[in-house]
Amino acid sequence: MTIRVLIADDQAMVREGFSVLLNAMPGIEVIGEAVNGREAVAQVDALRPDVVLMDIRMPELNGIEATREIVAADGEAKVLVLTTFDLDEYVYQALRAGASGFLLKDASARRLADGVRVVAAGEALLAPTVTRRLITEFSRISAAPRTPALTRIGDLTERETEVLVLIAQGLSNAEIAAQLVVAESTIKTHVSRILVKLGLRDRTQAAVFAYEARLVTPG
User: Which residues carry this modification: 4-aspartylphosphate (predicted)?
Assistant: First the structure.
């Protein structure tokens, strides 16, 4: 199936460049562009893309708020945040808002296409080491555990909590399976149940949740 992409960025050169690169890739089609967050929300509603490439700093409505509205209104569209720096504090806020990951604006065409495919498949884009580094740095924004988070943790089994901690530490399903000496399919089942019980969209949000609930300590 063709992955339908919407590009939201206030810079015309960025939109045009990404559009050309993605349309040249097999199985990917750019179906629309937006010049600000408000237009991005409207375009998602009208075009129903699979993936939204979302710039953070845009006029009228920034990418964080636009991401929050898109995630709340459309359970299908995945948001992939565009940023200039891999440790941008706004990226962390976007992940909390529901983005599935982030991509540097200087990414190669292959990396861009791979990122779109990964996010469209429902996975988090971030490499484990980058995920850990980003979340560790900016989870300090939350000074204390959040009561709702602690309450929801109680819904997890002991093994599910263990898997959640390992996700937050940046381990892949295969690595978690090896560490716990179980089949990878078993870990996939645990991850699915964790996401459902905690009301989360993907592994990135699960990692953020674990840090904010202080299951994992930044450092």
Answer: 55
Q: What is the pLDDT along the chain (219 residues), one digit of tens a residue?
A: 899 999 999 999 989 999 999 999 999 999 999 999 999 999 999 999 999 999 988 888 999 999 999 988 866 899 998 877 655 667 777 887 888 888 888 888 888 898 899 888 877 666 555 555 666 665 555 545 455 555 677 789 999 999 999 988 778 888 899 999 999 999 999 999 999 998 887 787 788 788 778 787 655
Burial of 213 (0-12, 13-18, 19+ CB in 10 A): buried
Lookup: tokens for 34: 């937006």
Which residues span the domain enclosing 15? 3-125
Closest CA to 213 of 151, 128, 124: 151
Q: Do 206 and 200 meet the contact criterion of CB atoms below 8 Å apart?
A: yes
Q: How many domains does the chain have?
A: 2
Q: Among candidates 72, 102, 71, which has minimal Cα distance to 86?
A: 102
Q: Are residues 101 and 50 in the same domain?
A: yes
On whether both 151 and 120 belong to a single domain, the answer is no
104 and 31, same domain (yes or no): yes
Two tokens at 2? 């063709």
SS3 42: helix
Does this model's pTM top 0.85? no
Q: Does the residue 133 lie in any domain?
A: no
- The number of C-alpha atoms within 13 Å of 134 and in the hemisphere containing its C-beta is 28
- DSSP class of residue 2 equals P
